[in-house]
Design goal:
heterodimer, A: alpha+beta, 3-stranded antiparallel sheet, 46% helix, B: alpha/beta, 31% helix, globular
Chain lengths: 153, 291
């Protein structure tokens, strides 16, 4: 059931959901390789930047958000420190692609139960829980943006 | 052999990058990567290395226990290992999981085991060869071990409780905050389901990290002796139990004590704090070290 997800993310989830575990792994590596290009580009300007090292993650993570003032479509960029685990890097690339263009309130409403459908049963374990961390950080920035928008109204 | 290795009690238990690179095609060796990062092997590993997963391959995934001797035989056969094969383990996190896998192999009596000093991070930092091609060794026959040697190198809750009550050496290798009971998770890690914080009464805090250099290699024999023999006061013949949260960091310390310093009676309490901290009426101490 992917109807509550933004369309791009729903497509990715449906794609992974149909794969056997071995192919999930291969495609997660492809996404993990793409995570290095998820960071801000030289000329980009953002509404919000949140770069920090939290206790529950092994390295520093930066989340950057720009929301189009007319369409209210959000565009995320994420930077990851070198010690961030591969699965988290893969999820970062998936979320940057899957949430691109979604409205901030849509991002805030994304449920996290799609994650096991992407990573599969073999890879879900306690110490892989930081795959949820990136989504939490993105939601946190979206919430701040929405609060600011309300204050300016 | 390097002069650093030659000072250790069992220098044959360690290999370094140049040695392993020269033995990548040695048919008597099987290189095994074992990681915390579940996809790290897929992003690039030593040529010819296979991956053994601490949970998927070595643990019984119904009961909280290790696989049976028959299960171990199957794992070895699948990865091209025979009783005569020298297994060289390496991995991430300064070899936590590599040491854990090595310890698990010892549970089944496989004594031809070695660690790559510094693990995968040092190998990659030195620019040594890496591949994404998965190794598919020919299947072997590994006779089912007659026993699992739990009694020799593995401690259970009751063993650890008895150790605590009789004031025998207990080493808590977790971070100081976990030991003192201030936090119930490892720094930089999610909560792993422990209800109480603190340490086993009488346990001394010696974080695993004290045994490792910043590049993940082991400290020298003299440095290790200063930590464990001089400061902690461990004596030859001591019956020692080490623990952490789930047994991987204490595997690292178990390796140090057993192979690098030569203590002959060291056990790893793999139930560790995730068992002790949840156990009804298990005695718990909080705060600083006992005097």
């Amino acid at each position: 059931m992917t109807s509550s997800l933004p369309p791009s993310l729903a497509d990715i989830v449906d794609f992974f959901d149909a794969l056997p575990d071995d192919e999930k792994r291969e495609n997660l590596i492809v996404y993990a390789d793409q995570s290095s290009s998820c960071g801000p580009q030289a000329s980009e300007v953002f509404d919000l930047e949140d770069v920090r090292k939290d206790e529950e993650c092994t390295d520093k993570v930066g989340v950057f958000l720009r929301v189009d003032p007319v369409t209210r479509q959000s565009h995320f960029r994420v930077t990851l420190g070198p010690h961030v685990q591969t699965l988290t890097r893969a999820m970062t690339a998936i979320l940057c692609k899957g949430l691109d263009g979604a409205k901030p309130e849509t991002v805030l409403d994304v449920p996290q139960d799609f994650v096991p459908r992407i990573v599969g049963g073999q890879l879900v374990r306690l110490r892989s829980q930081t795959v949820y961390y990136i989504l939490t950080r993105m939601k946190s920035v979206a919430k701040v943006w929405l609060n600011r928008e309300r204050q300016q109204m | 052999m390097t002069s650093k290795f030659s000072a250790y009690a069992h220098p044959e238990a360690l290999v370094d990058g140049p040695w392993l690179q020269a033995h990548l095609d040695d048919p008597t060796i099987r290189i095994v990567e074992s990681n915390e990062d579940v996809l790290l092997y897929d992003t690039g590993h030593l040529p010819g290395a296979v991956q053994i997963d601490w949970r998927g391959d070595l643990q019984d995934n119904t009961e909280r226990d290790y696989i049976s001797p028959a299960g171990f035989s199957e794992v070895c056969a699948r990865y091209g290992i025979t009783p005569e094969t020298t297994v060289v383990f390496y991995g991430d996190k300064s070899n936590w999981w590599a040491a854990y896998a090595l310890w698990a192999f010892r549970l089944f009596g496989h004594t031809r085991v070695r660690l790559l000093d510094g693990g995968s991070a040092k190998w990659k930092a030195e620019g040594r060869p890496i591949t994404r091609e998965k190794s598919k060794p020919a299947r072997t026959v590994y006779p089912v071990p007659a026993v699992r040697h739990d009694a020799e190198i593995r401690a259970f809750f009751d063993d650890t409780l008895a150790h605590s009550r009789s004031h025998q050496p207990l080493i808590d290798v977790r971070s100081p905050g976990e030991y003192r009971g201030e936090i119930t998770h490892m720094p930089e890690y999610p909560q792993e389901g422990v209800l109480r914080g603190g340490h086993v009464p009488g346990a001394r805090s010696v974080p695993w990290k004290l045994a490792a250099n910043d590049d993940g290699t082991f400290k020298s024999f003299d440095e290790l002796r200063a930590i464990y023999s001089e400061s902690l006061g461990l004596k030859p013949g001591d019956d020692i139990i080490a623990y952490c949260r789930i047994g991987e960091r204490s595997s690292h310390t178990w390796f140090v004590l057993t192979y690098l310093l030569g203590y002959s009676r060291v056990r790893n309490y793999d139930g560790s704090w995730t068992e002790w901290g949840n156990r009804v009426r298990a005695p718990i101490a909080k705060g600083e070290q006992p005097r």
